[in-house]
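Thread: sanity check for a docking pose with S-adenosylmethionine

Original post by kr_44:
Hi all, I'm comparing my docking run against an independent structure prediction. Below are the sequence and the ligand SMILES. Could someone generate the full complex and paste the structure tokens? I mainly care about where the ligand ends up relative to the chain.
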Amino acid sequence: MLNLPGDFVAKMKTLLQDEAEPFFATYNEEKANGLRLNPLKTSEERFLSVFPIPLERVPFCSNGFYYPAESQPGKHPYHMAGLYYIQEPSAMFVAEVLNPEPGEKVLDLCAAPGGKSTQIAGMMNNTGFLLANEIHPKRVKALSENIERLGITNTLVTNETPERLAERFQGYFDKILVDAPCSGEGMFRKDPEAMQYWSCDHVQKCANGQQHILEAAYAMLKEGGILVYSTCTFSPEENEQTVEQFLQNHPDMVLLPIEKHHGIQPGKAEWTKTNLQEISYTARLWPHYVKGEGHFVAKMKKIGPAHEWKGKIAASNVTKQQLREYQTFEKEFLHWKCDKTIYAFEQHLFALPDECPNFDGLKVVRPGLHLGEVKKNRFEPNHALALSLTRNDVKASIGLHVNEPDYIKYLRGETLPTGNDNGWVLVTVDGYSLGWGKEVKGTLKNYYPKGLRILS
Ligand SMILES: C[S@@+](CC[C@H](N)C(=O)[O-])C[C@H]1O[C@@H](n2cnc3c(N)ncnc32)[C@H](O)[C@@H]1O
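Reply from moderator J.T.:
Ran it for you. Here is the predicted complex with S-adenosylmethionine included:
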């Protein structure tokens, strides 16, 4: 049993009463491990026919699977190829509730490391516009890398405060997710370090912060828009009471019922300050009811009028020479044609998401798909482009296989003899893109990014 904070134990005993015993018993059990398939890269049928690790379905997420603790799917080359995202199973339920659709404008306000953003982009089928924001400069890097690995192209990754975004995007979004920073009580089993920060005072501080973040989200939601609020904590102060307070501040926000199935429980009216009956529309995932950690989810709709967004759409700023270099590369090596607005950050070119709003003055980490860099009179494709393409999109590819050692050599950054001279080629593992190589005089020069290379 974990050495749980005494005040936490006492509080949960009072809250849960008869249920306290089965709840605390889960701390003697192994946590569940989950991965979620990336529909942008593979079908479930194809993936399950080749993946060597036995999987069991997560009942409340259409692409979610449990895997055995010892199996290490993070080390498999299919992970490098972005076929799945390793995600705590209960966390997979949140994006299902948000239910983003292709073509929508969606904001994930507290997004790193990107579990829910990558799920949202998959559900949008890489169309529409997703703004994935993370306030912490270090954590935003992990978010950006995951967006790249999963081959996501419809997403602008930013490193902003909710308040700064709210100034720019009033009344803009169809759907917003606030997966709020919280006291993390639901993750003690998965991440025991979270226990050292826990105190009653910390719970209250988190609750205050959540209210501020929700205010910013409210401003950015259009009329009829959907706001999903989630945490990975049990405390009523950060869940039922946060939602209750937010609804009191905004009478034009109403709770929508979340369908409860496979052990998912309703939020508790008796844990609100005003005995708010509609709070039972919210959902709680408890470790003694579902195979996963603790989560809370609320779904709300803005029924009142909203500020009309009057911003501008981002325009292309590439020079003729930059465009020429890119198009020469595209014509020579790809069957794929970029039909998006191309944007340049110095010599780095990006294909913006559809109808991407102007982002001047914002801290942008990744504006859509990183096509590559214009170097002296040539264009060098970026790793992100490789991960967004399939072997049918390129003129030449090299097919490595997971049961032959060459893929390991490629991931280590070694050169490979190929006997060909095709220039830029897409390197694949079992048909899934892994990265670029450049074939010159019979040898493949390795362009797998140095920071991602494996050591053994
Ligand atoms: C629960 S985590 C998000 C997990 C993420 N949605 C996922 O699925 O991978 C909450 C995030 O909120 C960020 N955060 C912390 N303080 C914040 C604030 N004041 N405003 C917005 N985000 C904040 C944290 O850095 C953290 O990355």
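Residues 91, 110-116, 134-136, 139, 162, 179, 181, 209, 213 surround S-adenosylmethionine (CB under 6 Å). Hope that helps with the comparison, let us know if your pose agrees.
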